Amino acid sequence: MGSKITIIGAGSVGSTIAYTLSGQNLASELVLIDINKEKVQGEVMDIEQGTCFRDPISIVAGDYKDAKDSDIVIITSGIARKPGQTRIELTQTNVNILKEITPEIVKAAPNALYIIVSNPVDIMTYVFTKISGLPENQIIGSGTILDSARLRCGLSEHCEVSQRNIHAYVYGEHGDTSFIPWSAARISGMNVDEYYEDAKRFGKELKPLDKEAMLTYVQKSGGKVIANKGATFYAVTRGVVRLCGYLLSASESVTTVSSMMHGEYGIEDVCLSTLTLVGPNGIQGKLEMKLTDEEVEKLTASANALKAVIDQIEL
Fold first, then answer.
1. 0.90 cut: is pTM over it?
2. Residue 174 annotated to the active site
3. Closest by alpha carbon to 186, among 145, 225, 155, 218?
4. CA 236, 107, 2 angle in degrees (round to 5)?
5. Which end of the chain is more exposed for a tag (fewer CB within 10 A), N or C?
């Protein structure tokens, strides 16, 4: 018998996650829950009618009770970010929505692994961790999985090399205080500057990498997509579905997700993204990759910015 995944929120992100999962073999049961009953029923019908092209799968528009025995619960509920709006401006409204959802879904699926996707994701992950009563290993914020994917995309285009050959990450908040630990960024095992110099031997005429411009590209991509098409959902869906694969696999993987910090890099009582070991038992722990003093300062600044927001919200 396959896995059961419940998705809360049938907006652009939640329904795209459901659609993408319906075309893969990660789950044999999908439950989609939303306060808008007609919308969720329409999404399920549209997705279900394309499943004749794959192995049998159950997809239902359900209520919280239908989440019973879920292996994974994905929370995407909340008000979407509008053009020109920051993630932080969403905070209290989406926190209030999460406070309504949490006791209902935890009661129905206390043993599930939870993926928090709702923005601002680091704050929402923190709130869910504090109010759910669940062990912390069961709670994973999507964090900077998307930011790191955007970084790999940008580096791939600039360096004219496959994204598969790039290992580079975004740390900190999924937002404006994120940063790139360039000291650990690698292209085919070489640091970025070494690759740039070596690529000249093959006749590549690469422009020097503007690292600040690359960070701006990563941080501003979401806002640009929202300005152009109204919402972002394809890339984040790919990240969340890949994370589901990690959680349902036989062994752990390393990725950048948001979870509670417990003294790593001197940071405590806040959720943000650093390299994390995740697998079938959820989060196994943070990997303390060696950072420069300047990078630790940037991570601390990101943590402090998030704590300043946490201090202003009502839990």
1. yes
2. yes
3. 155
4. 55
5. N
